[in-house]
């Protein structure tokens, strides 16, 4: 049984003129099905880089990253894009919805990318929106939604293709505590229920109570 | 093209604005193109009618058929060398006429074709004159603008001869003048009447179906008292008074309209792509391929273009209806297709920079928040 995501002694360094900048040093961890993992650390510790590596947006300088047992570095950029579409759900700091698509279309668009026919894409979007309590906002555009609603749509967009791995980059940064808690609890239950894996970068220590484990990054190294 | 279409529908205003600008530019292109080919026809259709023959002119005429004067001796020598069935003698004379009983003068050019390949103008109205008539002629229908109707009698001013217009033809103009076709007897009468004493009969040109090269080879063998030059029909047309000037200035306008279109389309799509940098980064991060985004841009460009072109063609058709009848305007399907293809080509050229922008955007920018 493979873990969903595994980092195998991963290093990432950037060339900065003559010196090399080691952003990540010997990162080694894995996430199993149903695990919801928090990633914390001071800014500049390499959290974003780690997330980008996990999402196949960057390739490691050394070491191996595997998704469902498959090494990602060996894939072509095209395969990596397809992988992000099918197996990875991204949630960003701010919702970053497409401004000219309404709530339902945000989800339909992603389903259609996978080649889903229009009718079933519609149904799927509707079902998911009902689940997160946004069915009354189906035809609204992002500019007509509150920050919390937008972030919920963004999370729905990340989940619509039923990905194995969810990568979240401070998903609650723009929300107040009670809303943030509701969303994270929901995300957590989704992960448990559908046996997904999630890696969430957060600054908010109050959110860590919902995580199964916490990875602390300091100066490019795992400290716990 | 889900994304592309949704954006057009959501940002109706800016796309509509763009379509209006491109429509007006394309309309101008079609209008000026129509004017250019209309003027070209008005200037040269009588020469174009003769077909792709090789013309033999007097060398000193500087390729201008209206200046050329070949002596009868030259013409008969050419005729015997080339073979009687391979030459046509072309006589032409620009002159003025007036309708009998009226004072108003009308410019026209008299054409006389003598030879086996002689061109027969097709009639749009009236009857074919009998071959031996000395009075009946056919004229290009553009003379109707000057108030000449079928069966009117006109008087040629230099010879004093009168002719009856028994038929109209079309697309027979020379230097923006209607052409009247005279038969051999009429031309003979005409030259006799206006002949100044001592002047020899002259002819404007000899045409032959032989190629330019072959014509040169044959002509080089003959010893002639005057220098001749062999030129193609296209050269003769370009050398018509005003032809080059009209065409090149109109062609320059058309080229500039295309260049302006490239910049306007290019800048528009460059700007909206630049605005969407962050959005494209996110889309790439969530698994949208670069190919899909590029195709969306091409789709939006072509939609904008085709709607605009359709609208401008509609405007052009409406314009044709309201143009005054004498206006030299002619837009053939070939020219329209040529311009449509040119617009499609330049629109794709104009978005190259935006396509490069899209390719360059990194999905990483989504995470880094740049």
From TrEMBL, chain A:
**Record's keyword annotation contains Nucleotide-binding:** yes
Its function, per the record, reads: Part of the ABC transporter complex hrt involved in hemin import. Responsible for energy coupling to the transport system.
Q: What protein name applies here?
A: Putative hemin import ATP-binding protein HrtA
Residue stretches spanning the membrane = none
How does the UniProt record describe the way this protein sits in the membrane? Peripheral membrane protein
Q: Which species does this protein come from?
A: Sporolactobacillus mangiferae
* Localization (cell): Cell membrane
On subunit structure and binding partners, the annotation says: The complex is composed of two ATP-binding proteins (HrtA), two transmembrane proteins (HrtB) and a solute-binding protein.
Q: Which family does it belong to?
A: Belongs to the ABC transporter superfamily. HrtA family.
Q: Which SUPFAM superfamilies match?
A: P-loop containing nucleoside triphosphate hydrolases
Give the UniProt keywords, A-Z.
Answer: ATP-binding, Cell membrane, Membrane, Nucleotide-binding, Transport
UniProtKB/TrEMBL annotation, chain B:
Q: How does it sit in the membrane?
A: Multi-pass membrane protein
Q: Which residues form the ABC3 transporter permease C-terminal domain?
A: 253-362
Query: Origin organism of this chain?
Result: Sporolactobacillus mangiferae
As for subcellular location, the record says: Cell membrane
Known partners and oligomeric status:
The complex is composed of two ATP-binding proteins (HrtA), two transmembrane proteins (HrtB) and a solute-binding protein.
Q: Does the keyword Transmembrane helix apply?
A: yes
| Any Pfam family | FtsX
Q: Does the keyword Cell membrane apply?
A: yes
Similarity comment:
Belongs to the ABC-4 integral membrane protein family. HrtB subfamily.
Query: Can you name this protein?
Result: Putative hemin transport system permease protein HrtB
> What is the stated purpose of this protein?
Part of the ABC transporter complex hrt involved in hemin import. Responsible for the translocation of the substrate across the membrane.
The membrane-spanning stretches of this chain are 252-272, 292-320, 340-359
Entry keyword set: Cell membrane, Membrane, Transmembrane, Transmembrane helix, Transport
């Amino acid at each position: 049984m493979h873990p969903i995501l595994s980092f195998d002694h991963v290093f990432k360094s950037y060339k900065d003129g003559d010196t090399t900048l080691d952003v990540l040093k010997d990162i080694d961890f894995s996430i199993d099905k149903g695990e919801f993992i928090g990633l914390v650390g001071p800014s500049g510790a390499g959290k974003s880089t780690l997330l980008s590596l996990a999402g196949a947006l960057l390739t490691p300088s050394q070491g191996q990253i595997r998704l469902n047992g498959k090494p990602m570095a060996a894939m072509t950029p095209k395969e990596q894009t397809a992988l992000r579409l099918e197996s990875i759900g991204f949630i960003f700091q701010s919702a970053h919805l497409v401004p000219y698509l309404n709530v339902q279309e945000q989800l339909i668009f992603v389903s259609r990318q996978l080649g889903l026919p229009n009718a079933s894409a519609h149904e799927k979007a509707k079902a998911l929106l009902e689940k997160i309590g946004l069915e009354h906002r189906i035809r609204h555009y992002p500019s007509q939604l509150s920050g919390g609603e937008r972030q919920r749509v963004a999370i729905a967009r990340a989940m619509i293709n039923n990905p194995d791995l969810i990568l979240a980059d401070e998903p609650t940064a723009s929300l107040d505590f009670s809303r943030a808690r509701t969303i994270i609890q929901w995300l957590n239950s989704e992960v448990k229920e559908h046996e997904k894996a999630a890696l969430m970068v957060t600054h908010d220590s109050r959110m860590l109570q919902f995580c199964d484990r916490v990875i602390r990054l300091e100066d490019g190294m795992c400290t716990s | 093209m889900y994304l592309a279409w949704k954006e057009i529908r959501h940002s109706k205003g800016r796309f509509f604005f763009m379509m209006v600008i491109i429509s007006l530019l394309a309309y101008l292109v079609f209008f000026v193109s129509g004017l250019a080919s209309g003027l070209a026809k008005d200037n040269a259709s009588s020469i174009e009618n003769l077909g792709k023959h090789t013309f033999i002119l007097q060398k000193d005429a500087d390729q201008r058929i209206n200046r050329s004067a070949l002596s009868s001796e030259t013409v008969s020598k050419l005729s015997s060398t080339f073979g009687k069935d391979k030459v046509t003698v072309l006589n032409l004379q620009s002159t003025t006429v007036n309708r009998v009983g009226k004072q108003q003068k009308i410019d026209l050019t008299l054409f006389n074709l003598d030879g086996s390949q002689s061109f027969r103008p097709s009639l749009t109205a009236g009857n074919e004159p009998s071959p031996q008539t000395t009075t009946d002629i056919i004229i290009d229908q553009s003379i109707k603008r000057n108030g000449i109707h079928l069966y009117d009698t006109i008087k040629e001013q230099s010879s004093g001869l009168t002719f009856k217009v028994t038929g109209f033809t079309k697309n027979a103009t020379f230097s923006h003048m209607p052409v009247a076709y005279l038969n051999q007897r009429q031309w003979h009468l005409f030259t006799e009447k206006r002949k100044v004493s001592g002047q020899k009969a002259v002819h404007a040109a000899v045409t032959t179906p032989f190629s330019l090269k072959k014509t040169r080879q044959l002509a080089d063998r003959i010893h002639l008292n005057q220098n001749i030059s062999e030129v193609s029909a296209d050269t003769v047309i370009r050398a018509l008074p005003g032809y080059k000037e009209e065409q090149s200035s109109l062609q320059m306008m058309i080229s500039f309209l295309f260049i302006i279109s490239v910049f306007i389309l290019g800048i528009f799509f460059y700007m909206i792509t630049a605005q969407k940098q962050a959005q494209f980064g996110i889309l790439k991060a969530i698994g949208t391929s670069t190919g899909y985004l590029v195709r969306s841009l091409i789709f939006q460009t072509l939609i904008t273009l085709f709607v605009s072109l359709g609208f401008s063609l509609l405007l052009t058709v409406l314009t044709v209806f309201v143009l005054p009848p004498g206006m030299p305007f002619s837009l053939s399907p070939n020219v329209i297709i040529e311009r449509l293809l040119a617009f499609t080509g330049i629109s794709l050229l104009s978005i190259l920079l935006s396509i490069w922008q899209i390719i360059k955007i990194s999905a990483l920018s989504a995470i880094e928040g740049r």
